[in-house]
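Example S7 (structure tokens).
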């Protein structure tokens, strides 16, 4: 009897989810505009406080009108929107934040308090809603941390128009926004005199993206927009070089004290400017020839646009696609040798939520088990010690030496050759070394765009994760 009750409850939950996932539900609860809820996120490594800032009405809803409830289980945070009158969950989305990353830094562990400005966006409701933000605990379970009730007809909803006069144009359009993934590309550090460079950069990197699988095969599922954001000065901040620039979006190197990490902390300005175009995802092109970028799931990506080092032009192409893997696909970094600002990004003994790394705590239920060939051992052996010894040589190279890049490339080539000689090259397995950890975390493939600094493609597991995201926004 108990088993029958469990099955009945499970079927009821499935039925309720399917009922919400329909355009009829959208028309019942929402209008085709966006509600943007801004808040302050404050705390340390072990504490956090959410404080409501402002609620905005924005003119465009670009997201799906069918897949309203998140079924992907990605992200450190989850925003949930309930209709107050019926107590029905009518919208949810997983996401990550700068605060969430900062919590894993030494500064946060030392008890220093920091505050970051953040936003959640969802379709504009017809009547009062309860907005809840949940955070994963140490066992990856979502726990509600913030809740507020919002009346869409309230005088406290800010309805001012954020028209900055920046030109918006379509790079390509394949259909209605609600049935496509809408990517909005903005620039930071481009002056009015550099708009032609911005347009060339947009064209180049869009071509790079959609020449990479699976984006190449799914190009018709995307709309790409560009906004010509004008900055007073050219370039962006480089704190370690004492270079400071006045730019429209406030992007900077050395974010979270990581030299090549580019972020903007001016969330309000970014969201105000971006509201002038339809978007599901944001990409900020950085007018700089210094290596760097960043990508946070369901927040935005950044990428430098070129180099002054001959023969290294391909690196920006690599970064552009790699960072979109983070912000769009929710993919983790699969590398483990580069320096990062985090001290404990993935706690030991806990299975990460990202689809492309695992702690291998349950071999029988590996998250990518459908990709395994029979007989593939878990963990999957590879010559990691030899790979790491080459990496140790690379780490000792003098970055200021005139032949640094030549020597570094020679080591990369040796590592690549080593990977290709492995018994399980071209096979999906569980290869130790991933997520900034040399031990205890595993990646599904020996090489991938999320692993090595190269133009190699996405591995089968990462490709599948990206395709699931495309499907979620378009079907």
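Recovered sequence:
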């Amino acid at each position: 009897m108990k088993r029958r009750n469990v099955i009945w409850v499970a079927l009821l939950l499935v039925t309720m989810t399917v009922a919400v996932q329909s355009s009829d539900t959208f028309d019942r609860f929402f209008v085709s505009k966006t509600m943007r809820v801004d808040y302050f996120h404050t705390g340390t490594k072990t504490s956090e406080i959410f404080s409501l800032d402002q609620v905005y009405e924005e003119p465009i809803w670009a997201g799906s009108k069918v897949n309203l409830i998140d079924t992907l289980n990605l992200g450190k945070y989850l925003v949930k929107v309930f209709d107050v009158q019926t107590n029905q969950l009518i919208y949810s989305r997983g996401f990550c934040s700068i605060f969430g990353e900062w919590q894993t830094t030494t500064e946060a562990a030392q008890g220093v308090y920091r505050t970051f400005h953040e936003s959640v966006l969802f379709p504009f409701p017809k009547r009062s809603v309860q907005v809840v933000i949940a955070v994963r605990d140490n066992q990856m379970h979502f726990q509600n941390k913030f809740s507020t009730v919002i009346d869409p007809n309230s005088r406290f909803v800010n309805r001012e128009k954020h028209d900055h006069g920046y030109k918006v144009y379509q790079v390509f359009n394949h259909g209605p926004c609600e049935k496509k993934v809408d990517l909005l590309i903005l620039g930071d550090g481009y002056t009015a005199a550099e708009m032609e460079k911005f347009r060339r950069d947009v064209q180049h990197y869009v071509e790079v993206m959609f020449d990479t699988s699976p984006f190449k095969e799914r190009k018709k599922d995307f709309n790409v927009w560009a906004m010509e954001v004008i900055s007073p000065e050219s370039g962006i901040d480089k704190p370690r070089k004492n270079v400071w620039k006045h730019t429209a979006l406030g992007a900077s190197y050395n974010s979270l004290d990581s030299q090549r990490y580019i972020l903007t902390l001016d969330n309000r300005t970014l969201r105000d400017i971006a509201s002038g175009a339809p978007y599901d995802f944001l990409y900020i092109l950085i007018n700089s020839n210094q290596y760097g970028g960043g990508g946070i799931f369901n927040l935005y990506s950044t990428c430098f646009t070129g180099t002054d080092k001959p023969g290294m032009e391909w690196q920006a192409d690599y970064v552009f696609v790699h960072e979109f893997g983070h912000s769009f696909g929710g993919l983790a970094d699969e590398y483990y040798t580069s320096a990062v600002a985090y001290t404990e990004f993935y706690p030991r003994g806990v299975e990460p939520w990202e689809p492309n790394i695992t702690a291998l705590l349950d071999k029988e239920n590996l998250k990518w088990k459908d990709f395994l060939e029979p007989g593939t051992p878990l963990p999957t052996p590879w010559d990691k010690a030899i790979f790491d010894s080459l990496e140790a040589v690379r780490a000792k190279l003098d970055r200021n030496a005139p032949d640094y890049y030549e020597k570094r490339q020679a080591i990369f080539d040796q590592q690549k050759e080593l990977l290709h000689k492995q018994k399980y090259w071209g096979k999906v397995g569980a290869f130790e070394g991933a997520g900034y950890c040399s031990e205890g975390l595993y990646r599904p493939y020996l090489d991938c765009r999320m692993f090595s600094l190269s133009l190699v493609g996405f591995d089968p597991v990462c490709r599948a994760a990206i395709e699931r995201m495309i499907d979620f926004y378009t079907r």
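Notes on this example. The two ends are 38 Å apart (CA to CA).
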